[in-house]
Design a protein that fits this description.
Length: 139
């Protein structure tokens, strides 16, 4: 019984070492990439998120237009207009990991503990609604 527990503990230690080496490799990769400066200029974007996005994009010149780029990243939506109703639908194409990473970055930007940024301003505007314009009355 104790031998089985010892084997499980050694397997857990080996897995933890593998996770540490993979994490250190992921943290070192974005520093050598040309898009690193642009990605790190965004608030709350860490090394692993940058490595994930770089892994999906690889080279920006490979994408002929922004539509295919957004599809590959997983943030492409389509507009539907059946029977006079206008609505948008999020497509399930593209990278699930890229969509998840971008969602986590945006969620980190709009929490109450963060400083003011563009994401937080836009979120407040959507939640509270835009201020109503007063009618101009000429007499």
């Amino acid at each position: 019984m104790q031998l089985a527990r010892l084997v499980n503990v050694t397997a857990i230690v080996k897995n933890a070492e593998k996770v540490k080496t993979i994490t250190s490799m992921l943290r070192s990769q974005p520093q050598n990439h040309p898009y690193c400066e642009i990605l790190f200029s965004s608030p709350y974007l860490a090394e692993i998120v940058a490595a994930t996005i770089i892994g999906i994009i690889k080279n920006i010149d490979n994408w002929p237009n922004k539509k295919t780029f957004k599809k590959a990243l997983g943030v492409y939506s389509i507009s539907l207009q059946p029977a006079g109703q206008y609505r948008t639908k999020q497509e399930e194409e593209g990278s699930r990991h890229g969509r998840r990473m971008l969602f986590q970055v945006c969620l980190g930007c709009i929490t109450s503990r963060t400083l003011e940024n563009d994401f937080k301003d836009y979120y407040k505007q959507v939640v509270c609604g835009k201020p109503k314009m007063k009618a101009l009355v000429s007499t």
